Amino acid sequence: MKRLLVVGGCLLLTACASAPSHPQDPLEPLNRAVYRFNDTADKAVLKPVAQAYQKVTPQPVRTGVGNFFDNLRDVYSAANHTLQGKAELALTDVLRVSFNSTFGLFGLIDIATPMGLKSNKATLGDTFAHYGWQNSSYLVLPLLGPSTVRDGSGILISNSLEPATGVFQTHTQATTARVLDAVNTRERLLGLETVVEGAALDNYSYVRDGFLQMRAHQLGLPQDKRQQEEDLNIDELVDDPQDASAPAANDASGAAVSPP
Amino acid sequence: MKKLFACFALLFGLSSVAHAADTPVDLVRDTSRQALEMLSKDNGKNSAKVREQLISMVTPKFDFQRMTALAVGKDWRAATPAQKQQLAKEFETLLVGTYSATMTRFKNAQIDIKPNVLLNNEGREAVVKSEVTLPGSAEKKPINVDYTLYKTPQGWKVFNVTVEGGSLVTIYRNQFGEQVRKSGIDGLIKSLQDKNSGAKAA
């Protein structure tokens, strides 16, 4: 089901291209619909389940569950660092998996991090970006939340190449695991939705802009050009005779920072 | 994404200028230390008082007018001085209200302020980098929080905070722009007022 929806989303890429409010969000109408769906599903199911999960499990158990899935992600990460030709990071990932899967009791304990083997998770989306697919449209994935077309495609492909198939024997087991992973992740994020609701005028736009800024930063990409230009002119923007708070901009250098 | 939100509280909790501080790094460091000290006195019963103290300690270190200009972007030029005043006031209320509510979560945070500062704009603008670790949380990697400050006659003031590359200020630009397009600057002021009064009622 999830995959079907993602594919549907990709197909719609070409369909809707009417004046987006954000240059990186040509799929806004679709994304808003999926966002609403996710929000409803979260309120009805995922959030209450995560809250119940928080009540019945002690923190060490939840940390263990988180570590377990993190360990599986290190396997993906090693593959992706290899694909990107980043040997040192790939080796770190391999060592992390080796230590955590053995001395760390099948990944339940993350002993690699205190050993100095830092976690640097790479995904297939990162690999795509590494090979030039840098700007990608925003895409809200059903149930998974904010993503981009690039990262969503990466998830789609990675999921079909499941390293977990080596761990989980049956399809049912793999699905159960994915649900547990989702609940555990959601538990970590409890409280977040109140912040968004408290802070945002438009929740959708708030989450999107935050996500896109952070993702660009993660990939080492420059911020949205339009934004950059306006940021550069902050002195000029506030340099108003009425505005006593920016007197520093009155000296000669004030003019130099505002290119024509 | 999570980190961005996880650190919202830091916007008001941890970045400000002590009077003695004359470099941007000192300022951020002193304020962070003061904020953590205040938070450590929170025993569950006096939360409201601690929150009030924190707000009054931290808010003077920010320049909300400049922050609002940065959030609004080019539409700021079209605003009258009175509108600018109102916008800044409402934006301040929104930010303070939102983030002060989550501050107690950062009671046990460890804050590592990086000593080397990035100077821009001929030394009048500075970026101070910090790493925040929350012990006991599932987050293993420290969270990168950067503060952008500028020099005023009253000392350095913070006007932008980014968490893992996401700005807590420019995250509003599209939302504000949308409101201004729909109903003008006054419409934006109105929607901020509605938001703030709604938040109080809730």
TrEMBL record, chain A:
Cited PANTHER family: INTERMEMBRANE PHOSPHOLIPID TRANSPORT SYSTEM LIPOPROTEIN MLAA, LIPOPROTEIN VACJ-RELATED
One Pfam family in the UniProt entry: MlaA
Extent of Low complexity compositional bias: 243-260
Transmembrane segments: none
InterPro entries per record: MlaA (IPR007428)
Family: Belongs to the MlaA family.
Record organism: Vogesella margarita
Acidic residues bias locations: 230-242
Keyword tags: Lipoprotein, Signal
UniProt superkingdom: Bacteria
Name of the protein in question: VacJ family lipoprotein
Signal peptide start-end: 1-19
Region (Disordered) location: 223-260
From TrEMBL, chain B:
InterPro entries (UniProt xref): MlaC/ttg2D, Tgt2/MlaC_sf
Residues forming coiled coils: none
Keyword Signal: yes
Signal peptide residue numbers: 1-20
Annotated keywords: Signal
Transmembrane segments: none
A Pfam family annotated for this UniProt entry: MlaC
Protein name: ABC transporter substrate-binding protein
Native source species: Vogesella margarita
